Amino acid sequence: MSAQHPLQFVPAAEFKQRSVDATSDAHLRQSFRGAMDFLMAKRAAQFPDDASLQRQRAIAEAIRQYSLARLPDLLEQLERNLTAKGVQVHWAENAEEANAIIVGIAQRHSAKLMVKGKSMVSEETELNHAMEAAGIAALESDMGEYIVQLDGEKPSHIIMPAIHKTKQQIARLFAEKVPGVSYTESVDELIGIGRAVLREKFMHADIGLSGVNFAVAETGTLCLVENEGNGRMCTTVPDVHVAITGIEKVVEKLEHVPPLYGLLTRSATGQAITTYFNMIGGPRKGGADGKGAELDGPKEVHLVLLDNGRTQAYADEQMRATLQCIRCGACMNHCPVYTRIGGHAYGTTYPGPIGEIISPHMMGLAATHALPTASSLCGACGEVCPVKIPIPDLLIRLRGEATHEARPGHAPLVGQGAARSALMDAVWAGWAALYTRPALYRAFGWLATRFRFLTPPTQSGWTVSRTPLKPAARTLREQLAERRRKTH
To answer: CA 351, CA 305: separation in Å to the nearest integer?
Structure first.
């Protein structure tokens, strides 16, 4: 997918074709199957005691629900405490506002280069395109993000952006796109090449950008989880640090972070703990008369708090559970659909089960109504979610909202009813008529059995992987009546 064609703007109508293309790619399916099996095994090894896991999940769920129940107050408290520490807090209702804020900060500093730590929210807003349009380079410094950016693609997984690529593909990419680099399939050498490029960029960047895993309201602390050290570089080396996050990432107390952190790392990559856990409290401090001044760290720190449809989910008591997500990606790793089609087929920033329930709020059901149907409803996503989001229940709810008008007393979702069609309404009206009128039902049964030879061999999507449905030679009522005659 071209970097000039943001995935979030790919029409939902193309989802089916993208899925067909993905399942037809044997190499892609093999790569994802192997990677997902590996990740599932690593996660399982981190949770050998199911009773202990369920206790931890219950605690994490309670923390997230408590935080969301007090979200408006916690956001105001977070703003007060961050402002007191010298952090400039900005509020953005949508992606355009968030991008305008960040571009404005960059332009005030005459910035030419921004280095970015991993931030799915910046992917959500398409920040890189906005920066490019303003004449400012935005370079991804997470190794996976760097690889897909170099190849003009988008991440296919929220934790492992380049999981769909093989080392051979990356080797060819580096040889073609990185000056002075020869082809090598050595993973260590490839990582070294990427690090050499990025380290030079860190030293010349005017602005660093990061995401936020947890924002602690009581202490005014931004917590950042990472493995590569690039997040620490982005938040300390440039003179200006901009953090961007969704409004749902706030928790009240610092003590609420460890239970979530422990489940996040083990659910995401099967690690007991990540390499780096950053706690950001503000810009560098200057001592009186220049004495005791801190020598490193950014001189200016900004936080952009993004809504972008989250308040729609928040306003609905059932849908609010969507915002409990801590972005571990476990639901993707265990989803039989995602593991076969990969992230790009979805056409949204957040793929897999979590994307199917959060994208409709961010982009509207008109653009995403096909996504909630991309599930077998096997329940694996709900079983592994560390914060116990009832994903299957929410998928069923969204399927209904896509085909029905808003219920009385409920605010409609953006794009609600977009999947409704006159044909389907007629089909279900006919079905209701048959099953509520005994005489009509018996007449239909008689006709269906007598004219079963007219059954079409192709029955829409059903016969893609199943045999055609064909009525029996006699209805069940007729068969039972015949049996009674024979026995008497």
So the answer is: 22
Number of H helices, E strands in the chain: 22, 10
Beta bridge mates, 215 = 222, 250
Q: Can you tell me whether residue 285 is helix, strand or coil? A: coil
In tens, the pLDDT along 202-215 reads: 989 999 999 999 99
| Distances, alpha carbon 108 to alpha carbons 85, 113, 116, 212, in Å | 21, 13, 18, 23
Q: Where are the beta strands (DSSP E) in 74-206?
A: 87-92, 113-116, 137-140
H, E, C per residue of 336-374: CCHHHHCCHHHCCCCCHHHHHHHHHHHHCHHHHCCHHHC
pTM of the shown model: 0.89
Residue 135, Ramachandran bin (φ over 0: left; ψ between -120 and 50: alpha; else beta): left
> Domain residue spans in the chain?
7-312, 317-403, 425-487
Measured CA angle at 205 (ends 199, 208), to 5 deg: 95
190 neighbors 184 (Cβ within 8 angstroms): yes
Domain 7-312 belongs to what topology? Answer: Rossmann fold (3.40.50)
Nearest 5°: the CA angle 149, 151, 152 is 65
- Report the alpha-carbon distance of residue 202 to residue 414 in Å, rounded: 41
Contact criterion met (CB below 8 Å) for 172 and 22: no
Q: What is the token pair recorded at 296?
A: 């490193």
Q: Which residue has the tokens 């299957």?
A: 392
Residue 13, classed as helix, strand or coil, is: helix
Q: What is the pLDDT of residues 112-123, one digit of tens each?
A: 999 999 999 999
Cα 114 to chain centroid distance, Å, stands at: 24
Question: Could you tell me the two tokens for 166?
Answer: 């093989």
User: Which residue's structure tokens are 């729609």?
Assistant: 312
Q: State whether CATH 2.30.40.10 applies to domain 317-403.
A: no
CA–CA gap between residue 327 and residue 330 (Å, rounded): 8
Rounded percentage of the chain residues whose pLDDT exceeds 90: 78
Tokens of 250: 């706030």
